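for the recovery benchmark. C-alpha cells below, seq after
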C-alpha cells in the first residue's frame, strides 16, 4: 500500500510541532494557498513575513529560472565574484545608511543573529550581551541564549554565559547597559510578544545609552524588514540607526537567505586576525540572491513599503471597534490583534481557518493573533479579508454567549 503525503509527513519529517490538521498545499499564488482538496485559503501570515511580494511573484520566478540556467552553488561564499550577490549587496547598501555598507550573507535569521553576536564581541572585546524579555531571535544556541522566554530554553542549558535581560519600553532598565556590555540586541518592534511598538523616543534613548558605553546596538529586523513596517527597514520609522542589522525572511521573496549588515571597518574584523572569523558554505547562494534582488526591486519599484502603511491602517480601523477586540497594535502591514481576556487566540485561529483564512498566534501572547498578508494584497482583497475576519469575530463572540 502506498502511503499518502500526510502519512509520510508524520512518519519521516522531523517537526518542531505537530498539527494533525495541517493543510496539504499544492500551489500558492499571490495571497492564496491551494490545497490537495481544491480549497482556497487567504494567507494572512505570509510564511511569517517571508512572502512580502506574494507567493510566486512572476519577477522573482523569472529571476530564479534565469539564474538556474547560469549556475547554482560554486564554492564557499567569498571565493568567487558572483553577480547576484554583488548586485544584491550594492542595491541593499544603496538603500541603507552609509554606516551600514557591508553585507554578510547567510542562510537564515538565526544565522544572521549568530554572526551579529560574534561581530559585536569581536568589535568591542567584551562578552556581556543584553537582550529583552519576550524577545524572539531564533533557536540555534546563540540565538536561543538571547531569546527572552525560559520555557523554550530550559531543556537546552547551558547556553551562552554573560546574558542579561531587561524589559522592553522601560527606560530605567537601560541603566544596566554598561562599559562591560558588548551589545544590546533588540527587535525594533517586538514580534512574538504580540507586535509591541516602542514608545516615542525609547529607541533613541537606547541608542544614546549604547553610544555612552561603547556598546554595539543590534537590531533584529528578521521579521520586520523589507517593507513590512511601512518603511523599507523598520529602524527608519524611529530615526535610529543600529550598528548591526539582522535580516532574513522577507529578504528572499520566498527563497532562503539572510544577512547581517554593519560597517566595512567592523566587518573586516571577521576577515582578518583571524581569517575566517565567520564563514558559511551556502550564504548568498546565487539562486537565493537572484530571488532576493528581484524581490527588493519589486518592493522599491512598486512602493510596497509606503502602501503597506495605508493597507494596515485600513484593516486596523475596520476591525478595532469589534466587541471581541481589546486592542490592535499596528505598524505597516503587521497587526497584533489582541482579544479580550475571555477569548483565546487559538480559538480564533481555528475559526478563521474554517472560514478559509490563515492567521497565526504569537509565541508569547496567548490572547493575540497576527495579521500580516503579503504586501502585494490589493484593496479589493483587503475588503474581502476585513469581511471574513469580522464574520469570524462574530462567530467567536457567539460561542461565548
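predicted aa per position
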Amino acid at each position: 500500500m502506498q502511503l499518502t503525503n500526510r502519512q509520510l509527513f508524520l512518519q519521516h519529517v522531523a517537526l518542531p510541532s505537530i498539527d494533525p490538521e495541517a493543510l496539504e498545499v499544492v500551489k500558492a499564488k499571490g495571497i492564496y494557498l491551494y490545497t490537495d482538496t481544491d480549497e482556497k485559503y487567504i494567507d494572512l501570515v505570509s510564511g511569517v513575513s517571508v512572502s512580502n511580494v506574494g507567493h510566486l511573484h512572476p519577477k522573482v520566478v523569472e529571476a530564479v529560472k534565469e539564474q538556474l540556467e547560469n549556475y547554482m552553488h560554486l564554492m564557499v561564499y567569498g571565493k568567487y565574484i558572483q553577480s547576484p550577490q554583488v548586485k544584491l549587496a550594492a542595491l541593499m547598501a544603496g538603500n541603507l545608511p552609509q554606516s551600514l555598507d557591508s553585507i554578510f550573507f547567510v542562510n537564515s535569521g538565526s544565522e544572521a543573529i549568530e554572526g551579529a553576536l560574534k561581530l559585536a564581541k569581536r568589535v568591542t572585546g567584551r562578552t556581556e550581551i543584553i537582550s529583552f524579555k519576550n524577545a524572539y531571535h531564533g533557536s540555534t544556541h546563540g540565538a536561543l541564549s538571547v531569546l527572552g522566554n525560559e520555557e523554550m530554553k530550559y531543556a537546552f542549558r547551558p547556553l551562552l554565559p554573560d546574558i542579561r535581560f531587561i524589559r522592553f519600553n522601560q527606560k530605567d532598565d537601560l541603566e544596566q547597559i554598561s562599559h562591560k556590555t558588548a551589545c544590546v540586541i533588540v527587535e525594533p518592534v517586538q514580534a512574538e510578544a504580540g507586535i509591541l511598538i516602542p514608545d516615542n523616543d525609547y529607541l533613541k534613548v537606547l541608542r544614546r545609552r549604547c553610544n555612552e558605553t561603547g556598546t554595539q546596538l543590534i537590531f533584529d529586523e528578521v521579521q520586520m524588514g523589507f517593507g513590512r513596517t511601512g518603511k523599507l527597514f523598520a529602524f527608519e520609522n524611529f530615526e535610529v540607526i543600529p550598528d548591526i542589522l539582522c535580516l532574513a525572511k522577507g529578504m528572499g521573496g520566498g527563497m532562503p537567505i539572510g544577512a547581517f549588515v554593519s560597517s566595512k571597518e567592523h566587518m573586516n574584523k571577521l576577515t582578518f586576525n583571524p581569517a575566517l572569523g565567520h564563514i558559511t558554505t551556502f550564504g548568498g547562494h546565487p539562486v537565493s540572491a537572484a530571488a532576493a534582488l528581484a524581490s527588493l526591486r519589486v518592493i522599491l519599484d512598486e512602493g510596497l513599503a509606503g502602501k503597506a502603511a495605508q493597507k494596515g491602517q485600513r484593516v486596523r480601523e475596520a476591525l478595532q471597534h469589534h466587541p471581541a477586540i481589546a486592542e490592535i497594535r499596528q505598524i505597516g502591514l503587521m497587526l497584533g490583534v489582541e482579544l479580550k481576556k475571555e477569548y483565546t487566540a487559538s480559538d480564533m485561529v481555528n475559526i478563521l481557518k474554517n472560514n478559509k483564512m490563515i492567521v497565526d498566534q504569537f509565541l508569547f501572547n496567548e490572547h493575540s493573533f497576527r495579521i500580516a498578508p503579503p504586501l502585494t494584497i490589493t484593496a479589493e482583497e483587503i475588503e474581502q479579508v476585513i469581511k471574513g475576519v469580522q464574520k469570524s469575530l462574530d462567530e467567536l463572540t457567539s460561542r461565548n454567549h
